[in-house]
């Protein structure tokens, strides 16, 4: 029991810090709300989809920005997608980088774009680690026979 | 001098040529000297013919002037000096000549003397022994002294001399004779020279009179002035101390000399400006300083003319003022031009001021628009998080809670709903005010609208109130108008009435009235393209009439105090301070109603008696298609009547709803049919293709794509239908009423929803949210697919991402709207969307279609502007990321 409550506290702390530090926003809360008995793994599914998609997009972006003549329209489309998906799961900091990224795209500022790509990558990896940690905790709680605390 | 000049003048003019300044017979040296004089003028003047000068002169005075005024004397002095110089020169030349002559004379005299001596000697010798003895060799020498000119003669003489024998008597005789002749010639020459000298002197005396010289000079100066001034619109004059004219030059004289000379301005002219000019001259005279002034004359003689006048004082040699010179130039035209310019400048200035004003107004208008847009955007931004709060609270309310928690939560929910309502109202209002709100023209059935509005109101009714609807018989079965907005108005008024009524009933009365504006044919401001097109396609004999329908919403509530009436329709105004506290509400509902009614070309009024109730009345113009009541649609009606076996439903004019009752009572035949869930019907139809037969199979349209699971959901909903407004009890009825010409399905079905979104994560989230809301939806990934989906199937609501590959949301919406208007897919084909062959669909519905609500999903309100969405035919928008609440609101507003 002690271990479970320990885990539960850890989970809450971790989750709260994610919100507090701006990694996640309300949209993630929305996702949590959408998860229920009929869809126990909804959040994990969506977030995994997001990871998959993000890695693909980041690769695409890296390739697009390495071209001799850069198709900024293409880059912008990728960033737009990235922004859409990150905001859909509430990965706020990734989304914010995307906003800046798009501005640089408009200006066709290659240096800016490259910096943003780097930032986006970092933010994405950060939020991925944090979320994976969160899911791990969740798993541990469930395995220990506890219930995952509501985050609202 | 001038006098003489004038006298000579006429003569001179006739000759046309001015004589040289110098006597004609003066020698070369003199003429050369003359060249240094202003000869250019001379020549110019020589070539010119002069017209009789119009100057009128008081000669005596002029002479006086020239001799007494400073200017005159200096001019004279100059002339005299000039003359003296020239005379001196002439005298010098004459003297030289004279000297020459006297020298010659002396020589001649000397020679004569010699000759005499010689002769005497010869005579003596001759007389002595009668024979010439002496030879005078010196004789040659004497001749040598004679000027060369005469050498020839001498040489001749010499030859002559040779003839005779030297030193003979004959020789001497000859010599003497010859010398005598010479002497004679010399004397003769001397005589001639003397004569010439005398003549010269005489001439000199005669010609060198300074008067003549000066007069000539003056004449030349005068002519020069005439040359310059002959066409100038200039008047030059001199007036004495008493300002009497002593001299005037006027190129266009209108008065004779005697009329002017010796008179003052005032004595000569009458009219405006004369006195002014005289005073001005006097002023100059007194001050002793020259001055200029512009004076406008208004005299009988000239009419209105403006002169620029220059006046300068004239001083005598002693420095005394003796009069003024004045010069006037007519500048009437220039003044006119100047005044015109001034006027123009003024006009330009006024124009500029106006422009600035206009710009300001435009600026203010723009600012206002921006502020409104801002308000809309802000409201929109507020709505998303707020709806998060509310929806979380809603979800929370479904969890296990104790009584206290439930109560707290219900307060939270109602407050949240209120704020949401407020924000929605603000959005609506700013849509209307910023002109974004567009009205649609669709056919609808007033009776159905009334019924459904009442039904909906009854569903959430928590009071013991009776809701009634009366529709007069003369109200057409179908009219054309924006049914959504009309419903909005009705719902608003009804909920308002219910809110303020604690017992009794709330009624809606509908009847036709005469045109309130018979004079001016007031066309309803409805975008009636679709309706028109439809009529042209469907009914050949379409005659559109406008019918004015009056709607009273009457309650037996608390009423409105008279003092509150004027402010009732103003924004954020409620009847009293208490009202808001007691009854809640945003204070925007009535303002929106009024604006909507007015937007549709009608008007909204209220009458009320405190404690007895209020009646809100709105009058709206509706287009009626005469033809549509009879032939074409009857089949459809029959169909429907057969299917539903409730043909009274259509023409029935009375509905009544009891509290907590969904059963409408049709008093006309008393055969009220409860609209209950027909689970069998729903489960039967899960085939997408059934929707193709929309027009003939009434039920199918709203049911296609339903899954078995849905039935359960609906049942679940029914359980807590009182708690959640979302779980509206008769979604199908409401839904069908929107479809106007479509028939009323009598069963509960789920609305068919399409999500157009390219991104997997977004799709997943949205789908999950929909599931949470007990709705299903089809998903396509771009605009082109969306068009195909609409082509294939009938949707009740579309969520459309704006930014998509292949075809974006805006274009897809345009294509769909075009299809709805025209009933054909030309636009889609034009846009390059390949459509499956489904000829039946095209053929059957070759007319205007119902309008599918399309909700834009925008990533941010700035770049994908709301306006752009509206312009392309979208009905509303939600911002991404979509929230449960956002979706729920859309569902509530558009399909449930």
TrEMBL record, chain A:
Under Gene Ontology molecular function, one entry of this record is: protein histidine kinase binding
Query: GO annotations under biological process?
Result: cytokinin-activated signaling pathway; phosphorelay signal transduction system
Organism domain of life? Eukaryota
Q: Which GO terms describe its cellular component?
A: cytosol; nucleus
| Segments forming domain HPt | 39-134
Q: Which SUPFAM superfamilies match?
A: Histidine-containing phosphotransfer domain, HPT domain
Intracellular or extracellular location(s) = Cytoplasm, Cytosol; Nucleus
Q: What is its main location?
A: cytoplasm
Q: Which UniProt keywords apply?
A: Cytokinin signaling pathway, Cytoplasm, Kinase, Nucleus, Phosphoprotein, Transferase, Two-component regulatory system
Pfam families tied to this protein: Hpt
**Location of Phosphohistidine modifications:** 80
Q: InterPro entries this protein is in?
A: AHP1-5/YPD1, HPT_dom_sf, Sig_transdc_His_kin_Hpt_dom
Record function comment: Functions as a two-component phosphorelay mediators between cytokinin sensor histidine kinases and response regulators (B-type ARRs). Plays an important role in propagating cytokinin signal transduction.
- How does the record comment on the protein's domains? Histidine-containing phosphotransfer domain (HPt) contains an active histidine that mediates the phosphotransfer.
Q: Write down what this protein is called.
A: Histidine-containing phosphotransfer protein
TrEMBL record, chain B:
Q: Show the GO cellular component annotation of the record.
A: cytoplasm
The lineage's top-level taxon is Eukaryota
| An MF annotation (GO) of this entry | phosphorelay sensor kinase activity
Swiss-Prot/TrEMBL catalytic activity: ATP + protein L-histidine = ADP + protein N-phospho-L-histidine
Bias kind Polar residues: ranges = 738-748
Q: Which residues carry this modification: 4-aspartylphosphate?
A: 801
Q: What is this protein called?
A: histidine kinase
Species name for this entry?
Helianthus annuus
């Amino acid at each position: 029991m002690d271990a479970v409550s320990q885990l539960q506290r850890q989970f809450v702390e971790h989750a709260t810090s994610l919100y507090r530090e701006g990694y996640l926003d309300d949209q993630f809360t929305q996702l949590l709300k959408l998860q229920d008995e009929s869809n126990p793994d909804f959040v994990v599914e969506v977030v995994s989809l997001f990871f998959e998609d993000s890695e693909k997009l980041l690769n695409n972006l890296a390739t697009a920005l390495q071209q001799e003549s850069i198709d900024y329209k293409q880059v912008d489309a990728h960033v737009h997608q990235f922004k859409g998906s990150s905001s859909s799961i509430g990965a706020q900091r990734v989304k914010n980088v995307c906003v800046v990224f798009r501005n640089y795209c408009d200006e066709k500022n290659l240096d800016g774009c490259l910096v943003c790509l780097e930032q986006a990558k970092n933010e994405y990896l950060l939020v991925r680690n944090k979320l994976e940690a969160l899911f791990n905790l969740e798993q541990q709680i469930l395995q220990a026979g506890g219930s995952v605390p509501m985050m609202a | 001098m001038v006098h003489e000049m004038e006298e000579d003048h006429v003569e001179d003019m006739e000759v046309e040529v001015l004589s040289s300044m110098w006597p004609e017979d003066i020698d070369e040296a003199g003429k050369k000297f003359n060249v240094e004089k202003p000869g250019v003028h001379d020549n110019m003047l020589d070539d010119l013919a002069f017209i009789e000068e119009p100057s009128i002169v008081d000669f005596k005075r002029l002479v006086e002037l020239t001799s007494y005024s400073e200017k005159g004397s200096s001019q004279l002095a100059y002339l005299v000096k000039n003359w003296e110089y020239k005379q001196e020169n002439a005298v010098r030349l004459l003297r030289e000549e004279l000297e020459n002559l006297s020298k010659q004379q002396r020589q001649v005299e000397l020679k004569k003397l010699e000759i005499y001596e010689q002769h005497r000697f010869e005579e003596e010798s001759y007389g002595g022994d009668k024979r010439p003895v002496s030879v005078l060799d010196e004789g040659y020498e004497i001749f040598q002294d004679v000027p060369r000119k005469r050498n020839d003669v001498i040489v001749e003489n010499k030859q002559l001399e040779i003839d005779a024998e030297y030193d003979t008597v004959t020789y001497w005789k000859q010599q003497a004779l010859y010398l005598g002749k010479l002497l004679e010639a010399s004397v003769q020459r001397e005589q001639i020279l003397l004569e010439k000298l005398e003549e010269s002197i005489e001439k000199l005396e005669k010609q060198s009179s300074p008067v003549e010289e000066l007069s000539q000079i003056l004449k030349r100066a005068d002519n020069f002035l005439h040359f310059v001034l002959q066409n100038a619109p200039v008047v030059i004059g001199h007036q004495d101390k008493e300002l009497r004219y002593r001299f005037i030059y006027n190129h266009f004289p209108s008065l004779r000399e005697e009329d002017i000379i010796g008179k003052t301005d005032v004595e000569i002219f009458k009219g405006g400006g004369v006195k002014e000019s005289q005073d001005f001259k006097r002023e100059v005279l007194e001050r002793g300083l020259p001055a200029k002034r512009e004076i406008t004359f208004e005299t009988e003689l000239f009419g209105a003319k403006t002169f620029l006048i220059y006046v300068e004082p004239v001083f005598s040699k002693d420095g005394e003022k003796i009069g003024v010179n004045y010069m006037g130039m007519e500048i009437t035209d220039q003044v006119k031009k100047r005044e015109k310019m001034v006027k123009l400048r003024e006009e330009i200035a006024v124009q500029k001021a106006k422009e600035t004003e206009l710009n300001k107004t435009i600026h203010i208008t723009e600012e206002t628009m921006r502020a409104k847009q801002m308000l809309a955007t802000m409201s929109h931004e507020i709505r998303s998080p707020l709806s998060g709060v509310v929806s979380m609270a809603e979800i929370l309310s479904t969890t296990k809670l104790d009584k206290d928690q439930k109560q707290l939560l219900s307060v939270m929910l109602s407050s949240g709903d209120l704020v949401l309502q407020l924000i929605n109202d603000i959005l609506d209002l700013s849509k209307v005010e910023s002109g974004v709100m567009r009205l649609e023209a669709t056919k609808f059935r007033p009776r159905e609208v009334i019924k459904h509005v009442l039904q909906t109101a009854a569903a959430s009714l928590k009071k013991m109130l009776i809701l009634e609807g009366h529709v007069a018989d003369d109200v057409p079965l179908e009219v054309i108008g924006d049914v959504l907005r009309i419903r909005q108005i009705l719902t608003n008024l009804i909920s308002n009435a219910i809110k303020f009524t604690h017992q009794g009933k709330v009624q809606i009365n509908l009847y036709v009235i005469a045109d309130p504006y018979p004079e001016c044919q007031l066309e309803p401001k409805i975008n009636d393209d679709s309706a028109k097109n439809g009529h042209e396609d469907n009914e050949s004999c379409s005659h559109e009439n406008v019918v004015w329908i009056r709607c009273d919403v009457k309650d037996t509530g608390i009423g409105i105090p008279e003092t509150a009436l004027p402010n009732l329709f103003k924004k954020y105004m409620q009847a009293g301070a208490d009202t808001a506290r007691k009854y809640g509400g945003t204070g925007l509902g009535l303002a929106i109603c009024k604006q909507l009614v007015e937007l549709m070309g009608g008007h909204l009024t209220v009458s009320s008696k405190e404690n007895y109730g209020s009646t809100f009345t709105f009058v709206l113009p509706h287009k009626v298609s005469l033809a549509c009541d009879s032939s074409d649609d009857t089949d459809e009606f029959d169909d429907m009547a057969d299917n539903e076996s409730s043909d009274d439903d259509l023409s029935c004019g009375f509905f009544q709803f009891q509290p907590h009752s969904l059963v409408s009572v049709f008093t006309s035949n008393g055969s009220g049919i409860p609209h209950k869930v027909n689970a069998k019907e729903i489960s039967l139809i899960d085939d997408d293709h059934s929707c193709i037969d929309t027009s003939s199979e009434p039920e199918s349209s709203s049911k296609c794509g339903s899954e078995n699971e849905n039935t359960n959901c609906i049942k679940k909903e029914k359980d807590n239908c009182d708690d959640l407004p979302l779980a509206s009890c008769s979604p199908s009825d409401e839904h069908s009423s929107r479809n106007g010409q479509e028939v009323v399905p009598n069963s509960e079905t789920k609305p068919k929803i399409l999500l157009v979104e390219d991104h997997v994560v977004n799709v997943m989230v949205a789908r999950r949210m929909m599931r949470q809301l007990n709705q299903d939806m089809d998903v396509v990934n771009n605009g082109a697919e969306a068009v195909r989906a609409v082509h294939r199937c009938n949707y009740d609501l579309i969520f459309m991402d704006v930014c998509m590959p292949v075809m974006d949301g805006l274009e897809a919406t345009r294509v769909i709207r075009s299809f709805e208007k025209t009933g054909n897919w030309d636009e889609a084909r034009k846009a390059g969307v390949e459509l499956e062959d489904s000829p039946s669909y095209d053929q059957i519905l070759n007319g205007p279609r119902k309008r599918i609500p399309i909700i834009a999903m925008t990533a941010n309100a700035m770049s994908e502007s709301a306006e752009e969405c509206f312009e392309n035919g979208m009905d509303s928008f939600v911002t991404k990321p979509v929230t449960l609440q956002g979706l729920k609101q859309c569902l509530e507003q558009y399909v449930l």
